[in-house]
Amino acid sequence: MEASLVLLCLCVFLASGGEGRSPAGTVLPLQVRVQEVELEAPAANRLRFRHNVSLTVPVAVGTPPQNVTMVLDTGSELSWLLCNGSYAPPLTPAFNASGSSSYGAVPCPSTACEWRGRDLPVPPFCDTPPSNACRVSLSYADASSADGVLATDTFLLTGGAPPVAVGAYFGCITSYSSTTATNSNGTGTDVSEAATGLLGMNRGTLSFVTQTGTRRFAYCIAPGEGPGVLLLGDDGGVAPPLNYTPLIEISQPLPYFDRVAYSVQLEGIRVGCALLPIPKSVLTPDHTGAGQTMVDSGTQFTFLLADAYAALKAEFTSQARLLLAPLGEPGFVFQGAFDACFRGPEARVAAASGLLPVVGLVLRGAEVAVSGEKLLYMVPGERRGEGGAEAVWCLTFGNSDMAGMSAYVIGHHHQQNVWVEYDLQNGRVGFAPARCDLATQRLGAGA
């Protein structure tokens, strides 16, 4: 959902596999090779990744293969790459389309241009004459946008035996803009750590999942910079016992409901043992589709609509009053949506984090429990007290309304040490607590 190009280079360990295939158990190196793509399900592959601000996967694309880095995003559909001729900051590798013999731009008009983008918010459209390019225009919740042409090329997944090449449509982006990109310190653009593009993993017809025929995939995100694992296809029995929640389907199109997102039903929110007094109507999509709950690997934190956020903020602050000192600055808002903030020395807050009340996102049939260090985020560059002895910390739940969103979003920060499975075959998402570093080791992907 967030498509910020400024990311830490996270080692990704990708496993792929189509419906009916089991993982080959092959361990991939630090990068994922994405090269040519046949329109069949790829063999089972695994890649290591490291988690910090965004989840990225190294990929090889084209013939001969070019190494690129792509954001892993279950909230987006069409994959895309910054292409040669686009705005690419210094040291940011752009994909050289003219250097790939397997690259093909989709002409307009064509069936692919007319029908392939039915699910995109802005369908592909014909460029103005004399160009015959099929153009795509994409925008994201973090205010970034990308424009370019619809194209095809080869994505190579090298973790299987032998490596699997799959051909896929993607956006060859020639114009990209972002007003919110930040570096690892959260203070501004760090072009040396920018990614080349985005790997769209939602349920739309143009997503990488749909194009490769993948009916199940899962990931386990380790805290900090620990290695994690991503599996496309059958997990081979390595997943822990999962609690599943059904995907929510709405047949008719609604203006604020994303029908190709991984949408689940939020039944309630608890803080410690206290179930917040939030009316069911606040947690359910309304007649416009506003209020859906999405599981999204492309958004860092979790966002709640205003009424639910206010209830959570009040209860959490009350229960944590003896552990955390309020920041005491009513005008302070982190990233435009986080205003439940505190102050304190790092050692003291770290010790208190283990005593904080667990926040549970209660889903239909499952629950995502957020505890300990995952509850607070130290705001980069903000110090208080004499000599800057105190840091500023904010609750890692944001106000959707303040962020300009009309939905609940469960971000990847709250999916750390959770095995998350997207089961498209059975229309459900599964969750289970897990030690993701150990899961990575069991799958043969060391740090």
From TrEMBL:
<dbReference type="InterPro" id="IPR032861">
    <property type="entry name" value="TAXi_N"/>
</dbReference>
<protein>
    <recommendedName>
        <fullName>Peptidase A1 domain-containing protein</fullName>
    </recommendedName>
</protein>
<keyword id="KW-0645">Protease</keyword>
<keyword id="KW-0325">Glycoprotein</keyword>
<dbReference type="Pfam" id="PF14541">
    <property type="entry name" value="TAXi_C"/>
</dbReference>
<keyword id="KW-0378">Hydrolase</keyword>
<dbReference type="Pfam" id="PF14543">
    <property type="entry name" value="TAXi_N"/>
</dbReference>
<feature type="signal peptide">
    <location>
        <begin position="1"/>
        <end position="20"/>
    </location>
</feature>
<dbReference type="InterPro" id="IPR021109">
    <property type="entry name" value="Peptidase_aspartic_dom_sf"/>
</dbReference>
<dbReference type="InterPro" id="IPR001461">
    <property type="entry name" value="Aspartic_peptidase_A1"/>
</dbReference>
<dbReference type="InterPro" id="IPR033121">
    <property type="entry name" value="PEPTIDASE_A1"/>
</dbReference>
<feature type="active site">
    <location>
        <position position="73"/>
    </location>
</feature>
<dbReference type="InterPro" id="IPR034161">
    <property type="entry name" value="Pepsin-like_plant"/>
</dbReference>
<dbReference type="InterPro" id="IPR032799">
    <property type="entry name" value="TAXi_C"/>
</dbReference>
<dbReference type="InterPro" id="IPR001969">
    <property type="entry name" value="Aspartic_peptidase_AS"/>
</dbReference>
<keyword id="KW-0064">Aspartyl protease</keyword>
<keyword id="KW-0732">Signal</keyword>
<feature type="domain" description="Peptidase A1">
    <location>
        <begin position="55"/>
        <end position="432"/>
    </location>
</feature>
<dbReference type="GO" id="GO:0006508">
    <property type="term" value="P:proteolysis"/>
</dbReference>
<feature type="active site">
    <location>
        <position position="296"/>
    </location>
</feature>
<comment type="similarity">
    <text>Belongs to the peptidase A1 family.</text>
</comment>
<dbReference type="GO" id="GO:0004190">
    <property type="term" value="F:aspartic-type endopeptidase activity"/>
</dbReference>
